[in-house]
Amino acid sequence: MIPAKVQAILEAHALVALEFEPGSTPTAELAARRIGVATARIAKSLLFKDRAGGFHLVVCPGDKRLSSSALKRVIGSRVSMTDADETERVTGYRPGGVCPFALEGVAILLDQDLGLYPTIYPAAGTDATGVPLTFAVLAEITGGRIVDLSAE
After folding, report:
1. The predicted structure's pLDDT at residue 152
2. Parallel, antiparallel, or unpaired: how do β-strands 42-50 and 79-81 relate?
3. Which of 13, 68, 84, 106 is most deeply packed, by most CB within 10 A?
4. pTM of the model
């Protein structure tokens, strides 16, 4: 079931999430297969913690591997990926369903490569959802900073 705070955002932007059987889309590859799109069109969300204790949610194409040097260049600090418990505590979502909507105290970084696709699919707060939308709408809803996370 989509969390109420996410559903409110979807309704405010006239968006409708795709919903599947629980646990059916916990990875970008499985979500892509279930939705019927290329893995790159799944907007995967990864939470990182910087050395000062700040949190950064990176939203990038589902097939992209992030380099530590690219993250350090964009964030300005070395970072480490959070574990499942910390991810849920900070975002309110479990890994596999982390949604870039309705977050507080988390910097949102949107990889510019998501803009290469006419429609992308972030999760809607569960591991069985995907929200079809454009990169421009994702940027509008999240207020995220568009960044280049390409490896140098």
Report:
1. 63
2. antiparallel
3. 106
4. 0.95
pLDDT digits (tens, 9 = 90+) for 85-128: 999 999 999 999 999 999 999 999 999 999 999 999 999 999 99
Q: What is the pLDDT of residue 121?
A: 98
Helix (H) or strand (E) holding 8, with range, is: helix 4-12
Q: Give the domains, in start order, of the chain with CATH numbers.
A: 4-147 (3.90.960.10)
> Is residue 121 a contact partner of residue 37, using CB atoms and an 8 Å limit?
yes
Is residue 72 within 8 A of residue 79, CB to CB? The reply is yes
18, 146 in Cβ contact below 8 A?
no
Q: What is the dihedral of CA 92, 68, 72, 28, to 10 degrees?
A: -40
Q: Is 105 exposed, middle or buried (0-12, 13-18, 19+ CB in 10 A)?
A: exposed
* C-alpha dist (Å) from residue 53 to 30, 68, 86, 97, 149: 32, 17, 12, 23, 21
